[in-house]
Amino acid sequence: MPAVPAVQGSSADAAGSASGGSAAANGGGAGAARRRAGRPSAALLDKAGITVAALELINRKGYDGLTMAGLAKELDVAPSALYNHVASKRDVLLLVEDHLTSLVDVSDFGAAPWEEAVRSWAWSYRNVFAEHTPLIPVIAVLPVTDAPQTLAMYETVSKGFLDAGFPQERVVSSIVALESFIFGSAYDVTAPEDIFDSGSMAESTPNFTAAVRSAATNPPEGASGGPGRPADVAFELGLEALISGLGALRG
Q1: Rounded Cα distance, 166 and 247, in Å
Q2: Is 8's pLDDT higher than 60?
Q3: pTM for the complete prediction?
């Protein structure tokens, strides 16, 4: 599925000409020109640029750092100019959701066996959101209304499930089960290496501590056949279990 063009557009605010006119009337035309210098034309502010700026802002400051005022500052425009393109923060989040979803590979649905299609989709999905974990709690519960790329992904995946023999009433719950695992696994990619170090509690948790040490000294094979990253090994194990279990629902 093609990605939203990652071209950041910045623009002058819609009130710029009005303020410039008023400044000129008061003999401040040169000052107004200086204030506008370096700002691109309003035509360059578009939804693709807003999306990229929002992602950069969230990556630096987290989801709470995404405000309409902060986004306008990121784009070097006045909030009034931003509101010409998006009506609210929710609209911005829909743009971000659609952009990230467009990066998820669904090309194997309809072109490969169901198991292989789910496998490639899930790995791609996890890898995309592992790069944007601050957005997971928001996007995981964001309604998909008016999000064309996101709905296109769900349409492709749903058709793949139906074509594979899934009962229609089980399709959405199966996708949600996979997504819940995918989002959690995306967090695991960024977890510290010592996340399971029991420290001073090692003696009181001998079974868990021994299992952690065994995994570290004898790491399971990854998909490539060599020792895999713990996050990848865990994801592969869980995904294959889900594929096997969900596959039993097929008619």
Answers
A1: 8
A2: no
A3: 0.77
* 247 phi, psi to nearest 5 deg: -60, -25
Half-sphere exposure of 233 (CA within 13 A, CB side): 13
Facing residues of 221 across strands? 227
Residue 11 has pLDDT above 50, yes or no: no
pLDDT at 159 over 50: yes
Look-up of token digits 């294959």? 240
CA distance 35 to 20: 9
> How far is Cα 64 from Cα 62, in angstroms, rounded to an integer?
6
Q: How far is Cα 166 from Cα 191, in angstroms, rounded to an integer?
A: 35
Closest CA to 193 of 152, 229, 237: 229
pLDDT score of 116: 98
Rounded distance between C-alpha atoms, residue 82 and residue 63, angstroms: 18
Which residue(s) pair with 109 in the sheet? Answer: 112
In this predicted model, what pLDDT tens digit does every residue of 108-132 receive, in sequence order? 999 999 999 999 999 999 999 999 9
- Exposure b/e, 164-203, CB count within 10 A at least 16 = b: bebeeeebeebbeebeebbbebbebbeeeeeeeeeeeeee
Reported as a pLDDT band with limits 50, 70 and 90, residue 10 is very low
DSSP 177-240: HHHHHHHHHHHHHTS-TTTT--GGGTTT-HHHHHHHHHHHHSPPB-TTSSBPPHHHHHHHHHHH
